[in-house]
Design brief:
single chain; mainly alpha; 291 residues
């Protein structure tokens, strides 16, 4: 009885392994360089916020030490400005706008994806146009509308603007995701006697990655926006965190310690949210990109 030897596995050649290593190294190197470019301004803001004014201009790239360390910027922010009120206004505007955008957008997307009616394609085209045209082009008309509704210097006016700004993209993305949900599942629920609201609640968990991705891309622009708070709600009672920073910037003299300190405090909520929900954010963005 002859004994057959199994064919030996050939080790990958050095050239092949070098090609694989190089192919993995180049994208990682590009991402690392991009990370440094993106984090450098944040590093500069945070490190200089803990320096004296002279140190900011004399050694802007150095870390604070025993001679340059100073908390005067944070003292100025909390003594001269209603920073807690600005934070509260930003939280209210961002939170309410985000919740209402996702709720209204999800219901509209469900209707467009589930029911075929006359004008369905026209509405989809209308939403696409809304994505392509920046809402800031209509600033004058929006200001006139808010003035006629007595919504100038109110958080309600800002919330309505941000909802209108985010709805086209929200409906467009969610409707595409909801079309991917198996029709058999929804028909089976209808046969079992489920109402349309119950079917809608069953579909929502299946498009959770899209909701997460939309939430991320909606929340950050609203929190960082300066344009509409400056035009629609410029009063101190309704000022958001980004508008509150502007009071330290003057035409001739700027309190850079207070500016950098307030910018650092404004970044804290977004950084905390990213640290806590980073994995969920990456999954949501990746799923949205794949779809």
């Amino acid at each position: 009885m002859t004994k057959t030897n199994a064919p030996e596995e050939k080790m990958p050649s050095f050239g092949y392994r070098l090609k694989i290593f190089t192919g993995n190294l180049v994208p990682q190197l590009i991402l690392f360089i991009y990370m440094l470019i993106a984090l450098f301004p944040i590093f500069m803001i945070i490190s200089n916020s803990f320096k004296s004014r002279d140190a900011i201009f004399r050694t802007p790239f150095a870390l604070p030490n025993a001679q340059t360390f100073s908390m005067i910027g944070y003292d100025t922010v909390f003594s001269r400005a209603n920073f807690s009120g600005y934070f509260l206004n930003s939280f209210i505007v961002t939170g309410v706008s985000l919740v209402l955008t996702l709720l209204i957008g999800a219901m509209a997307a469900f209707a467009l994806s589930e029911y075929k009616f006359k004008g369905n394609d026209l509405i989809a085209l209308y939403l696409s146009i809304g994505i392509m045209i920046p809402i800031r082009l209509g600033t004058v008309s929006i200001l006139r509308l808010m003035a006629s509704l007595s919504l100038v210097n109110t958080l309600t006016g800002l919330i309505l603007i941000y909802i209108a700004q985010a709805l086209p993209m929200t409906i467009f993305i969610l409707s595409n995701f909801m079309r991917q949900v198996p029709k058999e599942l929804k028909d089976a629920a209808r046969i079992d006697g489920a109402s349309e609201y119950r079917i809608f609640s069953l579909v929502l968990p299946m498009v959770r990655p899209a909701i997460g991705a939309i939430g991320i891309f909606t929340m950050i622009p609203i929190w960082n926006d300066l344009w509409f708070p400056l035009i629609i709600s410029p009063s101190s009672k309704t000022a958001t965190i980004t508008l509150g920073v502007q009071q330290f910037l003057g035409q001739y003299v700027s309190d850079w310690n207070a500016v950098l300190s307030s910018l650092t405090l404004a970044m804290v909520p977004i950084l905390l949210i990213y640290i806590i929900f980073s994995r969920q954010m990456i999954r949501s963005i990746t799923a949205g990109a794949l779809k």
